[in-house]
Amino acid sequence: MNTNIERLSQMLKRHFHFWIEAFKDEETGEDVSIERRDILDTELSDEERQLIKAIAADIPNLTDEELLRFQEEISYFGCRTKEQIYIERVRRGEESMAESIEGVPTLRVLCDKGNRWAAYALYQKYNWGDEKQGIFINKREAKHYFDLASDVPQQYNDEWDDVDHPGEEFPEEFCYTLTGNAQTLDAVEKLINDLCQKLGIPENEHDGLGLFVPQRQLMKVLVGSDTEYYRGNVQHIERRAPDRLVITTEADKGEPLLYALRQCFENLNVEM
Questions:
Q1: Is 122 exposed, middle or buried (0-12, 13-18, 19+ CB in 10 A)?
Q2: Within 10 Å of residue 194's Cβ, how many Cβ atoms?
Q3: Are strands 232-241 and 213-214 parallel, antiparallel or unpaired?
Q4: Which of 94, 99, 186, 223 could form a disulfide with 117 if both were Cys (CB 3.0 to 4.6 A apart)?
Q5: Which stretches within 28-103 are classed as H helix?
Q6: Of residues 70, 58, 113, 69, the one with CA closest to residue 90
Q7: Cβ–Cβ contacts within 10 Å for residue 88, how many?
Q8: Residue-wise pLDDT tens for the chain (272 aa)?
């Protein structure tokens, strides 16, 4: 057994109180025992973080038994390492584990390699939206990934979505070109970058996947309101010249942000 896994088990005992609850099932009359856990402390020490990193680096060398055990134990701390385990299990042939992966870039890679479970996971994210991952509901993308996940793509029926999202509009891409005073453009760029650091996914910009800054949060800063009418995401910002900034969004409507930018930055020319 991997010694790091044993150290992890000891670490858990410092963070959780494990106990067995025994009771009689009222329906079957059988005696049942369930393991319970009381959280003592979830703050990891530097040594414990290093231990998790050491195990994560050794994931490809773990046995299937150790992999499953580590997956269960590491989940208590919400570590991103758990996704590495899912990826490793997919690599070993457990294709369905892809559906448990949260990271959109990873799912896209697996989908491109033909993993239908990854395609289905992406379908779910775009069909229902995933605020944690910065995914805005996009029924076109949802249908695309549903088709990739299905043996019979034509079975997809967008009427399914209308049950829970009546009258849902397809989001569109909007580009806003801001020209004028360079210092004012600096302020706009800084505002969006600050929101991205707090709410978006900045690393996605390098992969071409979009910043996913919630437009509602930007509108709240600009006009003090974040109603459903302002739903969408700021996908990209590009400073094409000292006096020119381009903002790309994905939203149901483009006019609200256009008017908000014009209202807040009167010395800029804003076109959509």
A1: buried
A2: 13
A3: antiparallel
A4: 99
A5: 46-57, 64-74, 81-91
A6: 113
A7: 18
A8: 567 777 877 787 787 777 788 888 777 888 888 877 677 776 778 888 888 788 778 888 888 887 877 776 666 665 667 788 888 888 888 888 887 788 888 888 888 888 888 888 888 888 777 766 677 777 778 888 888 887 533 333 444 444 444 444 557 888 999 898 888 888 888 888 777 776 655 444 444 445 667 777 788 788 777 676 777 788 888 888 888 989 888 887 888 888 888 888 888 888 98
- The residues near 34 (Cβ < 8 Å, ≥ 6 apart) are 20, 21, 23
**59 three-state secondary structure:** helix
Residue 225: Cβ within 10 Å count: 12
Structural domains in the chain, CATH included, are 3-162 (no CATH), 172-271 (3.30.70)
Is residue 232 helix, strand or coil?
A: strand
Residue 210 Cα to chain centre, angstroms: 12
β partners of residue 20: 35
| Lookup: tokens for 27 | 């329906």
